[in-house]
Amino acid sequence: VRHRNTDGRKSYSLSKVGRSNASQGYFLQQAFIKETGKLKITAQTSAHYTDKSFEEKAIGGVKPNGCEADSTAEQQVKITNATAASEPAAPNLQLHQNVELKCDALTGTATRSCHNANFAVNGFIEAGIKYAATAVKEDLNGWTSNTHTTAAKITNERNLLGDNVTNTNARLNNLKKEAQLSACSKMLTNYAEFESSTAFKRTAIKTLLSDFTNEKESTTPPSKLDDALKAAYGTAGDKLADNIWKKVSSSTAPTSKPDGETKTRLDALNDWTALTDVLSRLSTKQLLALQVRDLPADKVDTTKEKDCSYKNGDDCKGYCKMIEGVCKPEKKGKEENEEKDEKHLQLVKAKTRRHANLRILSGKEKSAKIPVFSSARNWL
Prior knowledge:
This protein is α+β, with helices and mostly antiparallel strands. The protein has twelve helices and nine strands. The protein has helices at residues 2-33, 72-75, 81-85, 164-178, 181-185, 191-194, 198-208, 223-233, 240-250, 272-293, 303-309, 333-361, and strands at residues 36-42, 54-58, 95-104, 124-132, 152-158, 252-257, 260-265, 320-323, 326-329. α1 (2-33) packs antiparallel against α4 (164-178) and α7 (198-208) packs across α8. The relative contact order is 0.09. Residues 1-5 and 366-374 have low confidence and may be disordered.
């Protein structure tokens, strides 16, 4: 699952970039389609074209226009494995610049053709530009005879999307393959989702059978593991919720607060940050508890003890001395004081370490966070 999710996240990031690029192209297309450009120049006095001839000049301008809101049907599409697999590809729409050109040489007269008559006052040439997803059929026949007021039509494609749509569709297809929704739907609260997992079986043998060094997925006989699982989780896991999850959910764990530590119910943890905080604190407490338990005992030099212990009566002499009927090394002056000081120092150090660790264990001191990840994540 983790491998598939890693691939899925990579594919998702790539498809997200592709969708962003494609959506910008769609946005530009929409802006062009909503604009209608026109240029009309009209003959003035003496049929001359002057600065007054530009009767209409709304050509070439494009204003930003947002896309229409999604339809209700589109917003209510529910994504499942089935619908994701049959989701249509993003359309590779192409924009077409469609131009219509008219010419009227003698406005208001019967003979208005521009190819066999001079321009008169108010005669004009008019060009209109529209953008659309479809191209108009090119037609120049309107300018071959006395029909110039029937517009000539020409079209050109404007490719604003490049290869963004093609790349996006390919990345979305990879995402569908690598990020299956079924992998994300598995739940640790559902016994059937993980009972066949080898990682779960190894963990169960370690914990339920106290075989902490186990790395196998089965026991000899197999019924040994089956009986342990049944006792812990019921038949086919029917006691999993009662025996495990209800108790887990109602348990409290240490969590961070601005001035130290507090207790929080596990069922109130709803994100990875909160869960990591709890696991870090619990792990730190466990490590510190082990350190307190495993503090080394004070070392005692037993060499002289052994030398004196076998002596009896008059043989107990030199650096040996009878003390309460037992021959022991005699402590003198500076040596005795140094030994007492060393023992006292070691005792103080041990008490200090225990005190500091217990303050962290009790939550009175902040502890460093240690990244911890539960092995249960590998069961699915």
